[in-house]
């Protein structure tokens, strides 16, 4: 199995409820090492740029407003098959459809305020990691 890195975001609905530690414990318990992490308050321009792929979607403006309403914690997770593993640990985008024991099932409030983001493929992981971190900030 390949060692991969993926970009994770603990979203405003989770930081507002002080869930960072509990969510990090889920990642570490699943073999995902946190090799970079910082807490940021995204500007509107930063949230728009990060989610530019969704700019034609009806939920885009609300998503940007949500992602800028409180701090986020951005992270690089590293481990075997980290991209898929993280998506398993997060659960489905819509918490109503997420499996028992996943982060979104246990913590998310709705399809938008869904507590965490994780990259969906190797190319997007590389782009999303580079959006937030320089190489010297990632310590494996
Ligand atoms: P994320 O994995 O960060 O990718 C895009 C985000 O847009 C998603 O999690 C949700 O926060 C949000 N999102 C996706 N689909 C919808 C939807 N149908 N309505 C509202 N927000 C959505």
Count of β-strands: 4
Structural class: alpha+beta
The major β-sheet equals: 4 strands, antiparallel
- Rg computed from alpha carbons, rounded to a whole number of angstroms: 14 Å
Ligand identities: adenosine-3',5'-cyclic-monophosphate
- The global form is globular
Pick out the low-confidence regions. none
Quick check: average pLDDT? 98
Q: Helix count, per DSSP?
A: 7
Fraction of residues in β-strands: 15-25%
Q: What are the secondary-structure elements, in order, as H or E?
A: EHHEHHEHHEH
Helix fraction by DSSP (H/I, runs of at least 4): 25-40%
Strand order of the largest sheet: 2-3-1-4
Please report the distance between the alpha carbons of the first and last residues. Answer: 17 Å
Question: How would you describe what is shown here?
Answer:
The chain has 140 residues and is an alpha+beta fold. The chain has seven helices and four strands. The protein has helices spanning 12-16, 20-29, 44-50, 60-67, 82-90, 103-107, 122-132, and strands at residues 3-10, 33-40, 72-80, 116-118. The longest helix is centred in the C-terminal third of the chain and has 11 residues, at 122-132. The radius of gyration is 14 Å and the shape is globular. The two termini are 17 Å apart. The relative contact order is 0.26.
